[in-house]
Amino acid sequence: MTWISFFSSMLGVEREEFPQKECVTAEAQAEKKPVKLQPEKIVIVADESHYTSSCLVQLAEEYPVIVCEDGQKAMLQILEQKPALVIANSQLPTMNGIQLCTCIRNNFNVNDIPVIILSDHPSDQERLDSLASGASDYFCMSVSLIMLRTRIHSLISQYNTVIKKYAVREIEGKAIQEINLQTHDEKLMENILVVISNNMSNPELTVETLAEGVGISRGHLYRKVREMTNDTPHALVRKIRLQQAARLLAEHHYNVSRVMRVCGFRNASSFARMFKQTYGKSPTDFMNQSY
């Protein structure tokens, strides 16, 4: 869909058709033939009363929509479907929209997906909480359809631009690896990952130990990790531990307690809480559903 046709449809303007009797070459016909793109998927997290609002119903007529009634179910769908955008109500049972947004931002696989929070009773504090959780925007539930449509299109366009950049970097990275060239930052990150891997089961691994292991200062390590991953060194270690735990649980070689210890976690309740925040389910449920 072209930009002109998108905004025309958004404003309710019919697209001008080509004259039926115009004589054109095969090449010209190919150029004029509109290309139909697959619409982007959107996950809407709302109960029935929210979903029946006019805005959300009309969105379902324009995009492939996946509707979930709570955040936990939505997180499973988000991990499986990789939607282009998530719209969540701020006031839901079990896991509300703000908690869901935090869960999305803590997961490596989906943390770049834009999230819009809608509220029945908007407040400055809730807006601050939403933006602090990583939400892309925050609106009252009665937001106009044209406002919501425009913001959705803008966020999806930004998301697709980022995805394309990552794809180009990945291709370039593979080409570099084939001739065995690495930048200084790539080599540093490789060394950081080696140290973390070698200390996977060591719950005493600190930022100071990590910095010493790669031969740089604590401050330099913090700056470089933040620059390369947008995370602190502590958060990076935690995410890698959780990824390793998820892999081991999915392989069913060890029970939850063993996986927790192997991955450097000492407290069972803390491990379960962080795992659920990242993967949307407890370690036990994750392992059982991986059969």
TrEMBL record:
Show the PROSITE patterns listed in the entry. HTH_ARAC_FAMILY_2, RESPONSE_REGULATORY
Can you give the residue ranges of the Response regulatory domain? 41-156
Q: Domain named HTH araC/xylS-type: which ranges?
A: 190-289
Q: Which domain of life is it from?
A: Bacteria
Q: Which Gene3D superfamilies match?
A: 3.40.50.2300, Homeodomain-like
Pfam families documented for this protein: HTH_18 (PF12833), Response_reg (PF00072)
- Record keywords, A-Z: DNA-binding, Transcription, Transcription regulation
Fetch the InterPro entries from UniProt. CheY-like_superfamily, Homeodomain-like_sf, HTH_AraC, Sig_transdc_resp-reg_receiver
PANTHER family named in the record:
ARAC-FAMILY TRANSCRIPTIONAL REGULATOR, HTH-TYPE TRANSCRIPTIONAL ACTIVATOR RHAS
Q: State what protein this is by name.
A: Uncharacterized protein
Q: Which organism is it from?
A: Segatella bryantii (Prevotella bryantii)
